[in-house]
Amino acid sequence: MNLSSLGIFHTIIGITALVGAITGFIKYGKINLDRLSGKVYFYATAITSLTALGISKHGGFNAGHIFSLFIIVLISIAYFLFSNKKGVRKARYFENFLLSFSFFLSLVPTVNETFTRVPLGHPLAKDIKDPIIGQTLLVIFILFIAGSVFQFFKQKKDNIEVA
């Protein structure tokens, strides 16, 4: 696999972020920054995105680094909405979307790296252009869209109950 110490740390923290997000989706239907799973997602994603900036399989600044920076922006805006716009019910729609979108974007390099490395010696994909990667990302994108629609209606219901 040839991972550096930073790469190993990045991978462990990244898996922690994924577990936090998935736990939130299962328990609350969203990444909820008020709950432990949401906090784990937020902080682990921030650390994973920052450590990704120090990793380069192909040398130099690349698309993965842009994803990382964009994810940092998304979770930062979501956190701002969460902490500074608590009373603004419409802000929850944006917060939910931004966190879910950051999760979706984090899965793009995750799928690429995992499929081109695992299983050891005979990875699922030869490179990022392999059809299995594109098909997997398409399924994940469809799940993201469906999840976003679900979250919109769930948030709408929650907003009505609070009013």
Give an account of the 3D structure:
- It is a single chain.
- This protein starts with a helix and ends with a helix.
- 75% of the residues lie in helices and 0% in strands.
- The chain is mostly helical.
- The model has no long low-confidence stretch (mean pLDDT 94).
Keywords:
5 helices, 163 residues, mainly alpha
Strand content: under 5%
Number of helices: 5
| Broad structural category | mainly alpha
Distance between the amino and carboxyl termini: 53 Å
Largest sheet: none
N-to-C series of helices and strands: HHHHH
Q: What's the alpha carbon Rg, rounded to whole Å?
A: 17 Å
Low-confidence residue ranges: none
Count of individual beta strands: 0
Q: What is the averaged pLDDT score? A: 94
Q: What fraction, in percent, of the residue positions are helical?
A: over 70%
User: Which geometry do the CA atoms define?
Assistant: globular
